[in-house]
Amino acid sequence: MPSKAKFLAGIKAEKGAGKKADLALASLPKNWPEDVEYLTDLTFSDTITPEIRRGLGRDPSGNSPWVRISFETVAAPLKAEIRLIDDEKHPACGQRGLFAAEPLVPDSFICLYLGHVHTNSMSDTDPHSDYDLALDRELDLSVDGSKSGNEGRFTNDYRGIAERPNAEFRDCFVQIPCSKRSEGMKWERRVGIFVLSVGKAAKRKAGIKADEEILISYGKGYWESRKVIASFRKDEEMLRIANLALDC
Ligand SMILES: C[S@@+](CC[C@H](N)C(=O)[O-])C[C@H]1O[C@@H](n2cnc3c(N)ncnc32)[C@H](O)[C@@H]1O
């Protein structure tokens, strides 16, 4: 895995556009698909005004319990890697998944879920995306990882793969560079992927083992809406997978 800080610093160090592209390719995570742009932070739709963007810096409850992730943590090399799934028994065989590269302790930060931030208006939303996630319900914003994103976009749903998820999405604040602040940094909200906590009976105290697939719950609604889309499109394979997931 490349360190994101190194990735950014490397790109800034190169002046020619061709060199930039070569360097970016060389720094892509292993198994990254050619047709998806790799991001080191969110990108924003033109419909998102500076005022809306400022809203992402607010502390909704005045004293938010959301975890704060420092710039160093976000920029550190990931402890997870993208792998191609070739196990025919896996419901996402032929696709990719995110796997632990080393043991991950309960509650630890795995990575951010990055993509293109858009408003939830119909004209700003890709109805075909399988990678769209709510970012801020109050601001009515989502983040779509279909055309651009990071490792987070490869996290599969646990249904049909394991008995239960071992990770979850959590709202968090991250520290990002800001030249307007005297400290050179500001806090802005993101969605992160975290290892589940140990749980009441401490059943999950082992966290996630090395080589284990990182699995979250997309929620039943995700698969129900895929079922509707599959029926509409008459896509038998999509319908089969949605039914399988819902039966689990
Ligand atoms: C956010 S993507 C996950 C990454 C995807 N596997 C890839 O290689 O890009 C969501 C898509 O992955 C597949 N997927 C995720 N979890 C699955 C599961 N439990 N069973 C079947 N397909 C799954 C479905 O095609 C779903 O629409």
Automatic annotation (TrEMBL):
Give every SET domain span: 80-219
Task: Output the Gene3D superfamilies linked to this UniProt entry.
Answer: SET domain (2.170.270.10)
What highest taxon heads this organism's lineage? Eukaryota
- Species: Acrodontium crateriforme
Q: What is this protein called?
A: SET domain-containing protein
Q: What is the lineage of its organism?
A: Eukaryota, Fungi, Dikarya, Ascomycota, Pezizomycotina
